[in-house]
Predict the structure.
Amino acid sequence: MSVHRQAQRISVPQLMACKGERKIAALTAYSAPFARLLDDALDFILIGDSTAMVGYGLPDTLSFTVEQMAAHAAAVVRSTSHACVIADMPFGSYQESPAQAFNNAARILAASGADGVKLEGGEVMAETTRFLVERGIPVLAHVGLMPQYVNTMGGFKAQGMTDESAQRILRDARAHQEAGAFGVVLEGVAERLGREITETLTIPTIGIGASPACDGQILVTEDILGLSGSRIPKFARQFADVGAVIKTAVEQYASEVRDGQFPGLENCFGVKKT
């Protein structure tokens, strides 16, 4: 007889049930220390392909690989027990065909233990969303400003600023809902559009530079902690200056090493107490 362990982690159905009940809070993480600190406070953690930029110092997200995503997602899963964990599908890992998307999504989930994947793309990617969902892989769609489309969009520019663009993005979001996505990330869109999509869809919308009306919000953790340098995106807010705390601690450490104050005998092995 099999023994079923009760899951403690927030599930995808529980996230969906938040629609109209309460707001969803989410952030990104890609390492064990950050994931541990974020876990209790959040509904879900996203291992974003933004890791390429904030973690590796790359100019965009396009060179991140399936292997890298799986490794970072595994670190986050191992270090958490409460928040649902969603992994981004890297550029080039799902656009070729639904079958390619399934193979790579399955690799990421099997290697990491993550609860679902996020993929970018408009109406044209809805078929892929449907293919994955029908085969047991929860999908969080991502429309509006899509970093993996930076070259075709001509940069990181706000979307939905014209009626034509807004209607296209609304169709994109609807198509993913109809395909079975459990939620939609709305990034960098006009506020009125974010509000309209949220009111139209029956699945949660997760805003990042969208609208306060969205069913939830997500930001890059480094942006809210003062770890992204001097430039804070318009859609973010710095809630703490952790960078300054780290800088002060490192300066104190270096000073004490150079002055011979650290390490002390209490930091050494084999020293008898007197």
